[in-house]
Every structure is written in C-alpha cells, then in structure tokens.
Amino acid sequence: MKVIVVGAGVGGTSAGIALQRLGHDVVIYDQMRENRPVGAALSLWSNGVKVLNWLGLGAEVAALGGDMADMVYLDGRTGETLCDFSLAPVTTQTGQKPYPVARADLQALLMERFGLDGIHLGKKLVGIAHDGTTVTATFADGTTDSADMLIGADGARSIVRDYVQPEGAPPIEREYSGYTNVNGLVPVSASIGRPTAWTTYVADGKRAAVMPIAGDRFYFWFDIPQPSGLPYDPAAGVAPLREAFGDWAPGVQELLAAIDPATSLNRVEIWDITPFDTWTKGRVAILGDAAHNTSPDIGQGACSALEDAFALGIAFATNTLGVADTLRRYAAMRVERAGELVRRARKRAWETHAFDPAVTDAWYESLRAADGTGIIRGIVGNIEDSPVNLGGGLLAG
Questions:
Q1: Is residue 152 part of a domain?
Q2: Residue 264 binned pLDDT confidence (cut-offs 50, 70, 90)
Q3: pTM of the complete model
Q4: For 160-182, how does the pLDDT look when each residue is reduced to its tens digit (9 = 90+)?
Q5: Is 151 helix (H, G, I), strand (E, B) or coil?
Q6: How many structural domains does the chain have?
Q7: How far is 350 from 165, CA to CA, in rounded Å?
C-alpha cells in the first residue's frame, strides 16, 4: 500500500517509520524548506520514549536524552527551595526513564531513520481529492501525488483537519492559552540549576525553568501570562525577559546572562484546540497537532503524537477490513485519550499561570516541603493509560 504523510514533524515521521516497518511504501511531504523545528527541546515522558523504543530507536534516543534524575521547585523571587525530590518513581512505575531532548536532534534522527530520499520539503499542501479508492494531494507548486491513504500530520493549522470534518460543521479554531513561552538552549551551569534536575522557578503566575539535555546543555523556557498579539521585535533579544524577570532570584539572572539570542531564542504564543471527535474521512486521517493541538503544560504534546503513530501502526498490523475501517479504529483508540490530555494541560495552565490568583497561590503553598508524591502521581497519571502500555497498567514502586 502506498501512503502519503503530510508533515515531517515528530508525529509524521514516526508514523511513517511505523508504516514502513509494516512493509508499506510511504512518502512524506512538508512545506518547510529545511529541518528547523519550532521550539528548542521537548519532554519525552515514558510513554513517548516507549514508542520510540518500539520503532527501534531506543539506544539513539537514550543518547540524545538528558539525565533528568530529580525535580526541584524554587521561589522565583528569593530562590528559596520549595521542594526537591527524585523522579525515580516515574521510571520504576512506568518501566521507562523519561528524557528531555533537543527537538532538532530528535527530528533529525526520525528523518534519517525514515530515509531522507523519501522526504520532500518545500511542498505546501493546497488540496485533497478522494475517489473512494485513491487519494490525491495537490501542492502549491502545481505538482500532485496519489496514494491508497493520506495521513495529515500538518500541524496546528492543518489543511487535512479541515478536509476530514463533516460537511457544514463549524470551523475548528485555535484558542489562546493566555501566555507566551520563550525558550532555547544554554550551557549547563550549576548556578542556574543542578545539572541532573528539572529546576523550575515560580512566582506571580510566571515560570522560569531548565531541563538537562545531551551535550551538557540546558533546555530553558520562560512562561509569561499576557495578551496575544503583542508587538515583538526579535532584535530586542532578552530585553523583554529582563523586563519580566529582572528582579527574580540570582539563578534566573544567571540564566538570562547565559542566553545568546543569535544562537537559541524562540518566542511562541501558546494556543490549543478544544478536543473534537472527527479524525478521519474515508482513506484520510489526521494525527499529532492536527488532531489534538495541546499546550505544553503537562509535557505531553510530542508524546501524544508518538502515541498516534503507535496506534496507527498497531491498527494496520492487526485489522484487515480495509483502509477506511482501519483508520476509524485508529481514531477510536485515540480520540478520547488525546482529548483528555488537552483538557488536563488546560487545567494545569490555569493552575500555574495565575488566571485565578487564589488557585495559583494555593499551588505555590502546596509545593512547600512537598515530598513529590502528588506531583509524581500526576506525571504517572498522564502516562498510565497510554496505548503503548497495552493495558498493562503500572507496577508499584
């Protein structure tokens, strides 16, 4: 069977590898002209890593991942330690250690494993035609390609998502999550945070955090609650961050000083999409951000896309009633869980970003002297129902 995948991100390439491993002829198209992922890094929690293990990439992903052994919360203004605990229970209960990884490194790995000859960049999808047996994709340069199936992994502004919606359905719109995220990479420094810890400074509904990734680097990010559409000039560099965090703790000042805007500094307004149920139409389906655009507040966006790839692969390995039927079964495996993760991320964003100050103050207070049990429970709770666990649940620590 020939498969067209639109989108060469984490979801599209992992789905392509999964279908290749089943013997299908897969080709990937993407409108980007080179591998320049949005965002510096991402969290691969145990469910996401397990999918990559299943795709045969376990050793390579472990080499890309940072040694994130602990979690630390600090008061953003004073630097006082609120709590400091081991993440080992996540590994023990789920059966896999989580890894933060540089997004570009993971993207390059997935593209190389799929095969660069099968990935065509600079191809913007503008139309889809479906005659019941063949799907034809039309691109902005006038070229077309036809296949037995098309998978839309074309991101938050997906064209394929619009195609699969029912006739006359209201348009699916992205919704602003209420804050801007600024992220990048800096060298590891103990004056910012312990080299083996995910360290987060919190105050006033804002966050400044670092995670270790391979190459003695920290992935950093700042969250700033603010309206969407504010003017932004990249030439300003770290000046907006200094304005928002200039009176924060010494570790945050060290982080600000370490940022090289010319090398690694990204600004992203955070938007998501209210969960919806229609992911397929005939021989066309969606996955990743096209299907469940999620805010990063629980670190499950990329992991959820990887779960899509796993479910798609399992569906085509085990069902034999035709492409359209198998795609519906894939969607049935994913719609409810993916939507629930979107809702959990929204709830978490509300708690952490002071949209209700009393709620956020209560969260800050709960962090003081916490032993990590509740936080670990929440992290594991996002993982335990993953399809990659095959219903196996968790093992007690």
A1: yes
A2: very high
A3: 0.95
A4: 999 999 998 999 999 999 999 99
A5: strand
A6: 1
A7: 29
Residues in Cβ contact with 36 at an 8 Å cutoff, skipping those fewer than 6 apart: 104
* pLDDT at 204 > cutoff 90: yes
Number of Cβ atoms within 10 Å of the Cβ of 193: 26
Find tokens 């929690």 and name the residue: 45
Distances (CA, A) of 140 to 29, 323, 330: 12, 27, 29
How many of the other CB atoms lie within 10 Å of CB of 270? 19
Place of tokens 């660069």: 116
- 96 falls within a domain: yes
Instruction: Classify residue 183: in a domain, yes or no.
Output: no
Return the pLDDT at 393: 67
- Name the residue with tokens 């570790």: 251
* CATH for 360: 3.50.50.60
pLDDT in tens, 115-173: 999 999 999 999 999 999 999 999 999 999 999 999 999 999 999 999 999 998 999 99
Grouping H, G, I as helix, E, B as strand and the rest as coil, residue 125 is: strand
Question: Does 216 fall in a domain?
Answer: no
DSSP strands (E only) in 229-290: 266-272, 280-281, 284-286
Query: In one letter, which amino acid is 278?
Result: T
pLDDT of 397 > 60? The answer is: no
Pairing verdict, β 149-152 and 175-187: unpaired
Q: Which domain holds residue 46?
A: 2-174+272-389
